[in-house]
Amino acid sequence: MAEPRVPGGTDDHLDLPCGETVHTHDVDLGMRELACSCGATHAVVMDVHPLGRFVPDFLVDTLRATITTDDDYDEFSTAHALAMVREEHPEDVAVADCSADGEVGYGLVWIAEMDSYELHRTVVELLVELMEHAISHAEDGPTTAEFEKQLEEFELDAFVDTYRSERDFEDEYDSAV
Ligand SMILES: [Zn+2]
Q1: Could you please report the per-residue DSSP string of 17-39?
Q2: Residue 22 C-alpha to ligand 1 middle, in angstroms?
Q3: From the CA of 146, how far away is ligand 1's center (Å)?
Q4: Any bridge partners for residue 14, and if so which?
Q5: pLDDT tens column, 70-90
Q6: Ligand 1 center to residue 38 CA distance, Å?
């Protein structure tokens, strides 16, 4: 399992993959994307965003039931998902640890080179792989078989498109974008 925590003290800025610098106090909780001075749009994620931003609750429940965490988080969370993205794309995701900064309202913040659609797609892809892996080690049974069937039929792009359009209108803490 990828480690969500970043070693070191409190960060007050992120050095983005594109070369721009963003101060953590300029990133607010409702932000899902950053229109960057470089001209690109970068995805913004914070550890306080629920995993439901990316996947439906039943999948979150399955993840939490299957994946055990051995860090300071009680259960599988957005921080783990983003740690996985960073492990997969280390050059493309900047992260800042603001857990000692009481003013920002979040602990960790990630800003990716990709936009929020592409990040969403990447997160879902990694979570599905993680679950396939976990299921392959689970005891065979009706639940496992049913789940494997669901995963086989799973269409990543269609899922992300539908999920984003359905979740678009929810409140800022629950929105897919
Ligand atoms: Zn940029």
Answers
A1: TTS-EEEGGG--TT--EEE-TTS
A2: 9
A3: 42
A4: 22
A5: 888 889 999 999 999 999 999
A6: 4
Quick: pLDDT tens for 11-54.
Answer: 899 999 999 999 999 999 889 999 999 999 999 999 999 999 99
DSSP string computed for 132-165: HHHHHTSPPSHHHHHHHHHHHT--HHHHHHHHHH
Let me know how long the chain is. Answer: 177
- pTM, full prediction: 0.86
Report CA(29)–ligand 1 centroid distance (Å): 19
Separation CA 3–CA 131 (nearest Å): 18
Nearest to 29 by CA among 177, 175, 172, 176: 172
Q: Where are the domains of the chain?
A: 13-167
